[in-house]
Amino acid sequence: MQQNLDLSQDVLRLVRIGTDDARQRSDDFLSLRELVIRSDEAYPHIRNWFDSKVTDGLRSGGRMGFVALINERPVAAAILKRGPTTKFCHLKIDESERSRSLGDLLFTLMTLDVRHSAKHVRFTLPESVWEDRKSFFNAFSFAHATKAGRQYRLFDTELYSETAFADLFAASRQKLPSLFGQLAIGNHSLLTGAVLAVQPGPLEKILSGVKTVEIRTRFSKRWEGRKVSLYATHPISGLAGEATIERVIEGVPDKIWEYFGSSAGCTRVEYESYVRRHSTVHALLLSGVRPFPDPVPLTQLKYLLGVDLPAPQSYLSLENNDGWLTAVVLAAALQGSIRVARRSNQQISAQFQRFA
Fold first, then answer.
1. Which H or E run contains 32?
2. Model-level pTM greater than 0.70?
3. What CATH number labels 192-335?
4. What superfamily does domain 9-183+341-353 belong to in CATH?
5. Strand 194-198 relative to strand 226-232: parallel, antiparallel, unpaired?
6. Local structure of 350: helix, strand or coil
7. Beta strands in 71-165 (DSSP E)
8. Which residues partner with 221 through β-bridges?
9. Residues 20-68 pLDDT 10s
10. Do residues 115 and 82 touch, judged by C-beta distance below 8 A?
């Protein structure tokens, strides 16, 4: 859902560029190409490299691309070549948008993409970039760089670096909570968010817009105005969307039904069965509902992150919960719904390119 932005926050859209995009030459594919070929002064053959090797690899599935757009303006591109020895072929961040969060995010997404096949990950980069940003690469377990056997770049020595995938994955996983704590979904910091558990039937009605009020016997007004992630309970057991809790209204069951029964997505009999023996109940007025195109199963999040994620029973706060905080933001990133604020004091250049 499109939302108005203030001057301190911009919409960051992340897109995977794969087989369909390359074959159809989608707008996102063309945005990726536009960013890559901007490096033609330093890499004279980069246009030919993209139009042949990269495009063929994207079409066949041997390569994967990522493009980041801020307010629909392409600002960052990443390309990797899959295999037991994965190659991070290209990462470029626009000079006006070089931030630690964006560089870390693209590195992490590339790492997750090759989790089933990679044993080692390698790349080449200009010596000047390695020396200037060594701490960035070290943080992702790339400890050393030596002169590369082939030199692609004009006027700057090309270096080569490699790490074991297990080490890269462990480093990426450790960085996720602090990295994503700097980002926001919607208008709120992820550190103040929550996960709301809803049964699959009622949740389907919420995601379709039929149900706009969720009834709870216990809830807190502290969540008014905050965005929450929607978790579908068993048998789906996964994150399925996002919504904003506009209001939390407490009242006696009869009055709550009188005012909100038509929007609760249930019958009076079902309502009475749920609220019986409770003197007061809470009506959660939902807005800004955004379904995920593909719900992200809890088992997949556990596997990707290597952490235990107990299923939420009613709702859980993301405050002081690094495991679920990371899972929520990762799911949002996979859906392309992250918003990131500009933070000039965190700038870092994370640019390198390799032709392979």
1. helix 27-37
2. no
3. 2.30.130.30
4. Gcn5-related N-acetyltransferase (GNAT) (3.40.630.30)
5. parallel
6. coil
7. 73-81, 85-93, 120-126, 146-147, 158-164
8. none
9. 999 999 999 999 999 999 887 777 789 999 999 999 999 999 999 999 8
10. no
Q: In whole angstroms, what separates CA 229 from the centre of its chain?
A: 13
User: Cα–Cα distance between 295 and 298 in angstroms, integer?
Assistant: 9
Say which residue the tokens 């968010």 belong to: 193
> Minimal CA–CA distance to 152: which of 33, 41, 55, 38?
41
Q: Is the pLDDT of residue 246 over 60?
A: yes
> Within a 13 Å sphere around the CA of 273, how many CA atoms are in the beta-carbon half?
5
Residue type, 335: Q
Cβ contacts of 1-6, under 8 Å, gap ≥ 24? 1/288, 1/290, 3/186, 3/187, 3/288, 5/71
Tokens 């303006």 found at: 73
Backbone phi and psi for residue 133, each to the nearest 5 degrees, phi listed first: -125, 30
Beta strand 188-189 pairing with 194-198? unpaired
In tens, the pLDDT along 159-205 reads 999 999 999 988 887 776 666 655 554 444 454 489 999 999 999 99
Contact 97, 61 (CB under 8 A): no
Tokens of 98: 């070089």
Q: Which residues pair with 197 in a beta bridge?
A: 231
- The token duo for 72 is 């629909």
pLDDT tens by residue, 308-337 = 899 999 999 987 787 888 888 778 766 655
| Dihedral sign (CA 300, 303, 305, 307) | positive
Q: At what angle do helices 322-335 and 100-113 cross, to 10 degrees?
A: 80
Domain residue limits, the chain: 9-183+341-353, 192-335
Residue showing tokens 């992630």: 229
Instruction: Report the C-alpha gap between 76 and 65 in whole angstroms.
Output: 11
Q: Is 306 left (phi over 0), alpha (psi -120 to 50) or beta?
A: left
The pLDDT, as a whole number, for residue 186 is 42
